[in-house]
Amino acid sequence: MIGQLFITQLLALEDDSIVSFKKMLASEKIEEVNDVLIFQQPMVTDVFNNVSQSLYSPYTISNNFLLENEAEVLAMTIDGDFICGNEQYTYCIPKNLLKSDMEKFNLPIRSFFLALESGEEQSQILPDHLF
Questions:
Q1: Number of domains comprising the chain
Q2: Does the pLDDT of residue 65 top 60, yes or no?
Q3: 114 near 1, Cβ under 8 Å?
Q4: What's the 3-state SS for 51-108?
Q5: Phi, psi values for residue 7, rounded to 5°
Q6: Is 127 contained in some domain?
Q7: Whole domain around residue 115: which residue ranges?
Q8: Where on the phi/psi map is residue 76: left (φ > 0), alpha (ψ -120 to 50), or beta?
């Protein structure tokens, strides 16, 4: 399970915006959940940028993925996979950054985590022990 305290904090948010999500992480001093999800900024964004540069190929997500999708790196798993999002979508991106393996959910980040917890959505990329 993601963590009952984290879910309670998500439910308390007034909206699904990334700004509200990030404010909640900062105000509650949440840097990780269950030793699986890492929210430490700017470290997770730096790791994503470094990996995207070093693994660049026609088959991987480009360095411009975040700009092109108006997205932000929101979290990283202990396994090195990434969770990115914008106001409409959440992307689960494997550590190898292969475009063909990326998952795109038509949910903003708050709704995405709540849907994972309830079993309404499933990810093949995120660790099983997260839910």
A1: 1
A2: yes
A3: no
A4: HHHHCCCCCECCCCHHHHCCCEEEEEECCCCEEEECCCCEEEECCCCEHHHCEEECCC
A5: -65, -45
A6: no
A7: 4-119
A8: beta
Query: pTM for this one?
Result: 0.93
Q: Is pLDDT of 1 > 70? A: no
Query: Rounded distance, CA 32 to CA 78, Å?
Result: 10
Cα–Cα–Cα angle for 24, 84, 18, rounded to 5 degrees: 35
Residue 131 has pLDDT above 70, yes or no: no
- Window from 6-10, 17-21, 94-98 with minimum mean pLDDT: 6-10
pLDDT surpasses 90 at 34? no
Token reading at 76: 């990283």
Is 87 part of a structural domain of the chain? Answer: yes
Region 38-61: what's the mean pLDDT?
A: 94
Spatial CA neighbour of 63 closest among 97, 90, 88 = 97
